[in-house]
Write a structure and sequence with these properties.
By secondary structure, the protein is an alpha/beta fold.
């Protein structure tokens, strides 16, 4: 093993290579769409810290391992089956997962060397968290970006309150509440991606990064940019006026009423997306994006750590847990019939929502984030 590659703990779920001045991170859990485990998060932090302090490493690139004959996935998010199992078992590793994941998200955003994310295929939830802080976010025509957490009774975490809040107009609210999937053209137009590389060019690019001479950070970036092309035309920006009009309302009931009064196919689809999601999660998500416009990344991640604690806290009391119910319906029983409580947005207490933003700790687990 190269002296530039420290010992890893994820049993091959994260692979690392060094080529000249470039460190490569390969997410290697393809059968799970490269969903993040706690061990993977720890390995990524180990690598990034080692390479940060290694003068011979000038840039880092990250990609997801593909599956033979299957569509690609950069990273489909956190391991929600682990969330379900750990919460049921009252396993403290669940809290460690979120604390360390959010710390990793922060480290990526402030990383002092170019960090390049090859975001081919599915990029959702935690996959957005490990890519949105990249200096160069590379998309293909197969890229599918989304923050669909409200569909499992959660909220757009991993810094979503920060980076969605930076989208133009009220696009951040729309993405947080509906979980809408974006292709490359829309993602780049909305500031969630940087450059477009055709998928057929990606194997050659990866081969160059892994084996061609990489002598400087500038050379690594140039290697990527040589294959960049004009991004596809955005498909969803035709709805920008409607997005801002409907999702600019102050409360969920107003947003839903506004969409209900719009007979367009787009508005009815958006309303259907909202009606499928947890009313409590929608209220939290809306509040998070609104607050996120006035927060630093570190402040947002601390707020998200508060929220995720309260999202799972009912499981520790063997009470109804909205997030566990959402995961059950999607990934455990797969009946896609979550029993949300409360079942309607009008029954969500504003006091409950506000209380979930409060810290349960005397010393916050992310207090050291700057």
């Amino acid at each position: 093993m190269s002296t530039s590659i420290p010992a890893l703990c994820s049993d091959g779920q994260v692979l690392a290579e060094v080529n000249g001045c470039l460190g490569l991170i390969i997410l290697n859990r393809p059968q799970a769409l490269n969903a993040l485990s706690l061990a993977m998060i720890r390995d990524m932090r180990t690598l990034l810290r080692a390479w940060r302090d290694d003068d011979s490493i000038q840039a880092v690139a990250i990609l997801g391992q593909g599956r033979e004959g299957k569509g690609p996935a950069f990273c489909a998010g956190g391991d929600i089956r682990f969330f379900h199992t750990a919460a049921k078992a009252k396993d403290p590793a669940l809290g460690d997962f979120f604390t360390e994941e959010y710390a990793l998200n922060h480290e990526i955003h402030v990383y002092p060397k170019p960090y390049i994310a090859l975001m081919d295929g599915i990029v959702m939830g935690g996959g957005m968290g490990i890519s949105q802080g990249a200096k160069l976010r590379v998309l293909t025509e197969r890229s599918k970006l989304a923050m669909p957490e409200a569909h499992i009774g959660l909220f757009p975490d991993v810094g979503g309150g920060y980076f969605l809040a930076q989208c133009p107009g009220h696009v951040g609210e729309w993405l947080a509440l509906t979980g809408q999937v974006l292709g490359a053209g829309d993602a780049i137009a909305l500031g969630l991606g940087d450059v477009f590389v055709r998928a057929e060019e990606l194997p050659g690019l990866i081969e160059q990064l892994r084996h061609a001479d990489q002598t400087s950070a500038e050379h690594v970036v140039a290697t990527v940019m040589e294959r960049a092309e004009l991004a596809p035309e955005p498909q969803l920006l035709a709805h920008r006026e409607a997005i801002d009009r409907h999702f600019g309302f102050g409360a969920m009931l107003e947003i839903k009423a506004s969409l209900a009064g719009d007979n367009s196919e787009w508005a009815q689809q958006a309303l259907g997306q909202l009606n499928a999601n947890s009313p409590l999660a929608l209220a939290i998500s809306l509040e998070l994006v609104r607050r996120g416009r006035n927060l630093s990344l570190a402040e947002d991640l601390r707020l998200e750590r508060n929220l995720v604690h309260w999202c799972f806290e009912p499981a520790w009391r063997d009470a109804h847990c909205e997030t566990l119910e959402g995961i059950r319906a999607l990934a455990v029983d797969k009946d896609h019939q979550p029993r949300w409580s409360p079942a309607h947005s009008e029954d969500v207490s504003p006091q409950t929502v506000q209380a979930m933003f409060e810290s349960p700790w005397a010393k916050h687990p992310l207090a050291d984030l700057q």
